Every structure is written in structure tokens, then in C-alpha cells.
Amino acid sequence: MMSKPFLQIDGIKKTYGDVVAVENVSMSVEEGEFMTFLGPSGSGKSTTLYILAGFQEPTRGDILLNGETLLKTPSHKRNIGMVFQRYTLFPHLSVGENVAFPLRVRRRPQAEIAEKVKKALSLVRLDGFEDRMPANMSGGQQQRVALARALAYDPPVLLMDEPLSALDKKLREEIQYEIRRIHQETGVTILYVTHDQEEALRLSDRIAVFSKGVIDQIGTGPELYANPSTRFVADFIGDSDFMRCKAVATNGGKADIQFANGTGASGIPMHGDIKAGDDISLMLRPERIDLVRQASSSAPSIPVTVSDLTFLGNNTHVTAMTEWQEKLSVRLPFGHDCADGLSRGDELFINWSPETAHVFAKRG
Fold first, then answer.
1. What is the pLDDT of residue 364?
2. Phi, psi values for residue 73, rounded to 5°
């Protein structure tokens, strides 16, 4: 008999009048997992998080923690930690009093409160800051206090809604490292909302990619990058090149394709409902494209013209144009044979392995 998942989101839907914010969102989260909700603004990720927190009621569906529904429990009794983008610290309370607040609400003994406040501040590396006022702290320090407050009462689940988006890049990366360390030290289950793909890849065990109120795909960072199931995921996770082409034949989940200049390629993994004769898109990762001076007889080769190039130390970023005026980005590692002496206007060929590419049904 299979054990029940620690946290189960089951068919959640949320509407506001005629607007559907979330549609049939379902997933299981294991205890101790770091799950990130990733997607653009308006994709439904924060709405799902707020339903989990109890700040909003779903139109349909259920949320189960250890097999028990949470929907009958008001938000303040769900024992779920929450960290917001804007810190939400009480400005008239000291750091220690802010961290102690949820413990006082739960009427914990004073000795326990003092011990847990000290432990929580130590966890976020703010030892000795108990008497500091929030106004006298940096944004990064304030966010650490908010994190300590959310962890002080040992919640089984910690929800984080775009907690670092108000910080500058350097500070954001510092706090990302701290969040990762805290997760590893505490083992708390974290559900984290962000629109930043790099942040999601850096922090997460798994990522749920949201688009237009639904989850397009759930997987680890490498799974989403190497095997995107939709064009949206392919475009949103990492850098991608897309080229127009036509499906010549399909068989066993793979397609044979042809480009505008007649060049063909076979055995490319396909996604969506694609039939022979359809106009489709081929997706290639810039680092999976090879730039060569002569066409290959063993791999698909397309003639291109170099329109721009930038040396970036460990790689050279090349912009190339196909004969039918589609722009491609290619990343050549330092020391690549073709990078030496490369100039704008050079006429070359791009090669790639069919198994590293994907084809998708045409959008719109």
C-alpha cells in the first residue's frame, strides 16, 4: 500500500467572476522538499500559494496535509509559516519581539520563547540583534528577520512569496544561499514563488512551471531544461533558439522535419499534437549548437551568416542568421576551433544532434 504524500494539492480551481486565475492545479510535495512555483506575473502561482496559506478560498479542489484537509482550518490555525516580499515586520517592535510574536500568539512559555527566538536568529545569522529596530537594518537583514519569525514556531511547511524580488542582485544571491543552507539544516518543507528562473534552478529540488493558471510541467531543473514538455517551458527555462520548419513525417513520438531551404533532419523528439504537413517549431539550446566551416555529412547542417559576436571569457556568444532570416544564438566554449579568427559576415554552418533538439506545435 502506497503511503500518502505529505502535502497534496488536488484539483484546485480559483475564479474571480468570469476570470479563471487557477485551473485544475494538482501536485504532491514530499516532506522536506523544496518546491518552487515558477512563472510570469498572472500565471496563478501566488494564488495557489495564498490558497495553501488560507488567505483565499478555492472555488473547487482540496489541499491535504498528512492526509487531512486544510480547507476547514482558518489560516491562523494552519501552523504554516509565511514570508512575503515586503518583510511585513512590525516597525514598533524590536527584532526579538518580531520573532517572538507568533510564539506569544500561541501562548508559549516565556522560557521557550526566549530559547526559540535565540535559536531562530542564530539560524539566520543575526545573533545579538534582538534589540535592534527594523528601521535600523538593511533590506537583507529585515528579510532574514522575517524568515526567522516564520521559522520560530517550527512550522511543518514554509511558504515564501517572491521574498527576494525587492533586493539587489548581489544581496539576492547572498540570501538565496542562506535560504538553501537553512532548508538543508532544518529540513522544513518549502513552497517558494518566483518569476526568476535562475533563482528557481538554484534553490529547488523540483519546479512547477505555471502558465495561464495551469501547471505546464513539474520536474527537477535538469529535467525541465533537457526535456521540456511544452514550448512555454522550453522558452521560459534557460535560453532557447526556435526555428520554423515543417513536419514531414511522425512516428513513435519523433518527427522528421524540413526547413525553408530544403534541409531535413530526422528522429527529433516532438511535443503536442503534430501531424505530417504541419508548420512547427524546432527548439535548440545555444550551447548544443556547433558552428563549423564545412557542412557535415553525419549531422543536420544549415548555412548561416555571422551577424555579431561577443567574447565573454569562457565562451563566445555568436549571433547568426539563416538564409530565411531567422536569428540564432550560439555559444562557443573558449578554445573552440571556429571561434579563433571569427568575424562578422563569415559564412558557416550550424550542426546539432537530433536527440538534443525538440519540436513543438506552432503557437497561436
1. 42
2. -100, 125
H or E segment and range at residue 264: strand 264-271
What is the amino acid identity at position 108?
R
Q: Is the pTM of this model over 0.70?
A: yes
pLDDT, residue 84, reads 86
Residue 46's pLDDT is 95
CATH superfamily of 239-361: Nucleic acid-binding proteins (2.40.50.140)
- Report the number of secondary-structure helices (H) and strands (E) in the chain: 8, 20
What is 100-156 written as a DSSP string? Answer: HHHHHHTT--HHHHHHHHHHHHHHTT-TT-TT--GGGS-HHHHHHHHHHHHHTT--S
Name the residue with cell 526567522.
148
Provide the greatest CA pair distance for the chain: 77
Average pLDDT per block of 10 residues along the chain, 364 residues long: 84 95 96 97 95 95 95 90 86 96 92 95 94 92 93 94 88 92 95 96 97 97 95 94 95 94 92 93 94 84 93 92 94 85 92 92 70
Specify the DSSP element, H or E, that contains 192. Answer: strand 189-194
Q: What is the DSSP string of 140-178?
A: HHHHHHHHHHHHTT--SEEEEESTTTTS-HHHHHHHHHH
Name residue 207's beta-bridge partners.
36, 219
- Of residues 230, 218, 241, 344, the one with CA closest to residue 290: 241
Would you state the cell numbers that stand for residue 347, as one nine-digit string?
559564412
Distance CA 21, CA 51 (A): 12
Q: Which CATH number fits domain 31-41+77-233: 3.40.50.2300, 3.40.50.720, 3.40.50.300, 3.20.20.150?
A: 3.40.50.300
Query: Is 321 within 8 Å of 238 (Cβ atoms)?
Result: no
